[in-house]
Amino acid sequence: xxxxxxxxxxxxLQSIPYHNSIIMGAGVFMxxxxxxxxxxxxYFKKWKYIWCExxxxxxxxxxGVMYIILALVMLLRGFSDAIMMRLQQALAVSPSTGYLPPAxxxxxxxxHGDIMIFFVAMPLVFGMLNFAVPxxxxxxxVAFPYLNSLSFWLTVVGxxxxxxxxxxxxxxxxxxxxxxxxSGIVYSPGVGVDYFIWALQIAxxxxxxxxxxxxxxxxxxxxxGMTLMKMPLFVWSAFCSxxxxxxxxxxxxVTLGLLFLxxxxxxxxxxxxxxxxxMLYVNLxxxxxxxxxxxxxLPAFGVFSEVVATFSKKRLFGYVAMVYATLLITLLSFSxxxxxxxxxxxxxxxxxxxxxxxxxxxxxxxxxxxxWLFTMFQGRVTFSVPMxxxxxxxxxxxxxxMSGVLMSVPPVDFQLHNSVFLVAHFHNVIIGGVLxxxxxxxxxxxxxxxxxxxxxxxxxxxxxxxxxxxxxAFMPLYALGLMxxxxxxxxxxxxxxxxxxxxxxxxxxxxxxxxxACQCIQFVVSIKEREKNKTTDNDPWENGxxxxxxxPTPAPFYNFAIIPEVNTRxxxxxxKEGHLNNPNLIKQPHTEKIYMPKNTPAGFIIAxxxxxxxxxxxxxxxWMIALGLVGVFTTVTLRAFDNDTEYCLNI
Length: 651
Fold this sequence. Notes:
Layout: H1 3-8, H2 21-43, H3 47-55, H4 60-91, H5 102-136, H6 145-164, H7 192-220, H8 233-264, H9 278-312, H10 319-332, H11 348-376, H12 385-407, H13 410-416, H14 420-450, H15 456-482, H16 499-528, H17 530-533, H18 571-576, E1 594-597, H19 602-619, H20 622-640, E2 645-648
Antiparallel strand pairs: 1-2
């Protein structure tokens, strides 16, 4: 082994794709953005503030804000990949092959899928949970604040590894779930699949820790009087989502671990020629992957339940039915994974079971949609921005759900499998359900976190661009799927008749881009005009129903001066209406000790060492692997001896 190999492992100057102007241009742009941020923090002398108030913070509200920032930044990165794909397919009609080489195109659609699921949707989930769950159950923080910080920074490390792959080495060119044998060492000998494994492995550990944290928080830290059937629907949806996390993410961890062993140590778990089975990987990855869909969508359902009741000025219709529907979805989500590969040849009986299970899981979802509609029925509906996102969700998600039920019929799936019809269905569910839900939640809870509203005018503009762009971008894909267009095509023949539809889809992606631009402008305008939009009372929406609206806006770091006692599902609303005399829901001066967790850099430091370890495993840098492991275990050990509580007086 040479000195260079000992220091850098397999990393060489040739690992940087100098020859690809698109990649290098993107890399230079990312570097300029990072340098600009670093220069700004240095120029305004904000490093101490950032370190003390954010990087080392264990305040669930600040961690939620950082999750949302991460998600929005990665949304820009993932959307840029989507624009590249849509432009490539719009331009790649024969005899042209477009502007992206096939190998690069394969990396783009793989990175797009992984970024949008793991580093946009998942941070949005945990951002919303951090925003609202402790406030809604009357707690001052989550059960394990330090673990909450660690979970976030592990997610950041996973996102960084994916972005580093853009300019150092390459990313997987396998599709977003990296099926073997394509992801095996024979067909993917580079580092792309290794980036995939370690980015998802590290972020997945963070998600698993968050799942455990929120389960314990909801079970153990509810305020007095709040029984399970008095919890807000958002808390119920978070609870069920986190149950799925703690059962599904260990499966992902094991699956990626087995793939790593096949690549790194030459085991043959998924190699058919040596006694393995590639379909074992597909079963394992989808036994995580389908519950993952409900991990993402259930908290969004909870957001819609809060928004519909608030802006209809009515009690939520069918609370008990909504709870049982959520529990049924949680249970059934583990019984439908095989519908993702009906064509594997499992046999008619197996396909029939999973097809029927897929149809059945649509029933509790339909119950939820009808309950939201009945809540709005004869209500005094206010069409504020959160409500607009909710109404758009109901129609958009219904279309996605119906196309899903259509594909739950195995003979139909045999025809549509691996076509862009499936792409349209999936985006109907994820964008129309998950993304719209978290946009609604972000707007709804924004004043409670920051003390001022997001600008309604720009929020409406963003909404209309998003909804028009979405239908323009994805409805043509349903037609293209029925016409036989398969997924992941870098170019195609002119006589297929696909080109006009792909042009329309590209235009739709551009309209969505305008929606994202409006959201960026919305944040800037809202910050500039925050004094005008500043809230002056405890209830910015004037009709919030749950506990978080009973505390000052923005919420203090200790949340509740006195832990409230509740005896009803809508305690704050009933107090406002005069139906409930509960002095613990009224702000009072407090002179006793309030114990709160103190900030700690341990989560950030552990994540840094975990990032070094992941990067070293990708490039086989032995000394850095050892450094990462030693750093993680040393920091964890030292943190175990630290006193993690402090108190404040005279609140």
